[in-house]
Amino acid sequence: MNQSKNIPYAEVKVYNSAPTFFLDGVPTFYSALWLTTLTAGSFSDTEVVKKYAGETDIHLYAFDIGEAWCGPGEGRKGHFDFATLDAKFANIIEADSEARLHLRINLEQNRP
After folding, report:
1. pLDDT digit string, tens, across residues 72-82
2. For residue range 64-73, what is the model confidence (pLDDT) as tens digits?
3. Distance between CA atoms of 34 and 43, rounded to whole angstroms?
4. By CB distance 3.0 to 4.6 Å, which of 9, 18, 43, 60 could disulfide with 2?
5. CB neighbours (10 Å) of residue 99?
C-alpha cells in the first residue's frame, strides 16, 4: 500500500466481496487502451493516444514491453536494454501528460 499521497499508484484488492481495481486508493473501472507491442522504431502511437485521452478522459495505457529483456550475449553490456522502452514512455507522455502505464511483461526470450 502506498503511504504517500503524492505518488500515483494502482492496486487490486477485495471490495464488496470482489477483486477491484483501485487507482490512487479509489475503486475505479479499469479501462485502458492496449497499445501495440513495443519493437524498435514503433513509437507511432502519439495520434491514437491524443485522440483516446481527448475523447474519453481515460489515461491508462497498457502495452507489452517487447524486447527489453535481451538476455546474456556477446557484445551486450547486460541482460536488459531499456532504450526502446524509454522512447515508448516518452512518446506516450508527450501525447498525454496524465498517462498511467500498465506494462505487460512477457518472460519468454525470443530466439532465432
Report:
1. 677 777 777 77
2. 776 666 666 7
3. 14
4. 9
5. 17
